């Protein structure tokens, strides 16, 4: 009886050790994961705020459509990021950074073509930076859920960059 109990205990220890190692390799949050999630949360919120403004204030129909697309797509991306954060224990920031607050103040004072140009140029800059952030997470992130989020949304960010670039050439 002791032999069976010892064998069972040994098997359980080995099994738990394997699961522990799998969790360490795929689910621990490293600084890349945390920085990624924080930066993306700020970016999503900023894109939603600026997009709402562009959807109503843009003078170019393409700018208004792009703004609405930013609200819709970054709204969904933020909801998905919140789910990932909840499942991994990552805490996301509640507000945007000073740079994006300043952009909102500036956009609020502009109208017409000036608004459209500043908005689209900010979208180019933000989406270029975001592509890099996503690529860093895919390469260096440790948590599989966070990396999966990055892999899922990188094509969307690249498409947003492409559309912003096309709009900038029209303006």
Structure, described:
It is elongated, with a radius of gyration of 22 Å. It has helices spanning 2-26, 31-57, 61-88, 98-109, 112-140, 144-170. Helix 2 packs parallel to helix 4 and helix 5 runs antiparallel to helix 6. The protein starts with a helix and ends with a helix. The chain has 171 residues and is mostly helical. It has one domain (30-170): Ferritin, core subunit, four-helix bundle (Ferritin).
Taken in chain order, the helices and strands follow as HHHHHH
Q: What is the chains' assembly state? A: single chain
Largest sheet: none
Number of domains: 1
Helix content: over 70%
Beta-sheet strand percentage?
A: under 5%
Mean pLDDT: 89
Keywords for this entry:
171 residues, Ferritin, 6 helices, 0% strand
Secondary structure elements and pairings:
Elements: H1 2-26, H2 31-57, H3 61-88, H4 98-109, H5 112-140, H6 144-170
Helix pairs in contact: 2-3, 2-4, 2-5, 3-6, 4-5, 5-6
Short note summarizing the structure:
With about 170 residues, this protein is mainly alpha-helical.
